[in-house]
Amino acid sequence: MATRTQVAVVGAGPIGLELASAFKLGGVKYLHFDAGQIGHTVSWMPRQMRFFSSPDRISICGVPLQTVEQEKASREEYLAYLRSIVEQFDLTVHTHEKIMSIQKSGSKFLLTSEKATGQHQYVADYVVLATGDLNRARELNLPGEDLPHVSHYFDEPHRYFRKRLLIVGGRNSAVEAAIRCQRAGADVAVSYRGDEFDTQSVKYWLAPEIEMLIKTERVTYYPLTIPTVITPQHVSLRQVQTGQCTQVPADFVLLLVGYEMDTTLMEQVGVALAGENQAPQLDLQTMQTNVPGFYVGGTAAAGTQIRFQLFIENCHPHVGKIFESITGRQCPFDATDKTHSGRYALPES
User: Fold this and answer.
1) Nearest 5 degrees, angle CA 334-CA 280-CA 286?
2) Per residue in 67-125, pLDDT tens?
3) Are 96 and 115 in contact (CB under 8 A)?
4) CATH topology identical between 3-136+259-345 and 139-255
5) Minimal CA–CA distance to 193: which of 217, 166, 170?
6) What is the pLDDT of residue 21?
7) Cα–Cα distance, 85 to 31 (Å, whole number)
8) What residues contact 261, with CB distance under 8 A and at least 6 apart?
9) Cα distance between residue 297 and residue 24, in whole Å
10) CATH architecture of structural domain 139-255
């Protein structure tokens, strides 16, 4: 028999937890799901990586985020903070329970989940999707992309010590991985389809460092190239202007070319997707989609972001809008846009 609830929240990242806290404080009957652990996509970040945003911009539920060194939060500090939010508000999250399908049945939604004990069904009056826009790594569909020495995720640099590492990509994740792995003693090469790194997508303190490492030949740089074939010994790079191919020896390959949003659940219920981002059609005053009762909050509202516009810090208002639309009441805490309003309108750093 299906379990019934007023609201089903899918996704337990920062905005999902902020929504759950609002529903809990507001006395709303809800159920909360995540395919992994809380903050699952945050846990994909490299160890000790720091956020670009200041702690007050990524704090949630009106609870201050304190860091050990009064600097920007690290991955570990932010995951600990999210765990503390769950403890403080005593939130119940169905972690490691993936929502496999959502179907509209009259005015209700039927959700089917899968976890270690099998499949389960739930019926909800409203569904809020807060799964973020980084659901899966973008694949290049290259021969050899599935080899064991190839990864789309950078965890930590130690494993690449005194190994030849080729990093494909030119945005922040690729640049930061290149710098950290070079510092850890790896022989690093970078392939990027552009001529120069996009300074708008690279943390400002990293850009001059990668430029210095390339200029002093401590990182080998292959601009205007794309990988075509990966073998256990090397990667073939094709020059985008001339078509000339170069074979680069590599013990490990990191394909850090971005992530994509999984739109499966939206498509199942008939949410209209539009534009190059395949963003859901939304009423920006309520965050309700074209499907009555189905809401999208957080960075998922932007689809797969080609040029980033939504971040944790400017998604806080989604919480208040969704809560007010469903309950007719104001959010129990201040959910303010921490990018464009008041003192937050000042430039970061």
Assistant:
1) 35
2) 988 889 999 999 999 999 999 999 999 999 999 999 999 999 999 999 999 999 999 99
3) yes
4) yes
5) 170
6) 98
7) 17
8) 131, 132, 133, 134, 135, 278, 300, 303, 304
9) 17
10) 3-Layer(bba) Sandwich (3.50)
Query: Residue 247: what residue type?
Result: Q
What pLDDT digit, counting tens, does each position of 7-17 carry?
Answer: 999 999 999 99
Q: What is the C-alpha to C-alpha distance for residues 1 and 119, in angstroms, rounded to an integer?
A: 11
Q: What contacts 318, CB < 8 A, 6 or more positions away?
A: 15, 287, 297, 298, 301, 335
User: For domain 3-136+259-345, which CATH number applies: 3.30.590.20, 3.30.230.10, 3.50.50.60, 3.10.290.10?
Assistant: 3.50.50.60
For residue 271, what are the CA distances in angstroms to 63, 68, 129, 292, 308?
33, 43, 11, 10, 22
Report residue 139 as tokens. 């694949």
Break the chain into its structural domains and give their ranges. Answer: 3-136+259-345, 139-255
Two tokens at 251? 């013990």
What is the band of 341 on the pLDDT scale with cuts at 50, 70, 90?
low
Angle at 324 between CA 40 and CA 123, to 5 degrees: 60
Residue type at 17 in one-letter notation: L
Tell me the C-alpha distance between 38 and 27, whole Å: 22
Is the Cβ–Cβ distance between 240 and 225 less than 8 Å?
yes
Residue 175 DSSP SS3: helix
Residue among 263, 267, 271 at smallest CA distance from 288: 271
Is it the case that residue 347 has pLDDT exceeding 50? no
So what's the pLDDT on residue 271?
97
Decide if pLDDT at 141 tops 90.
Answer: yes
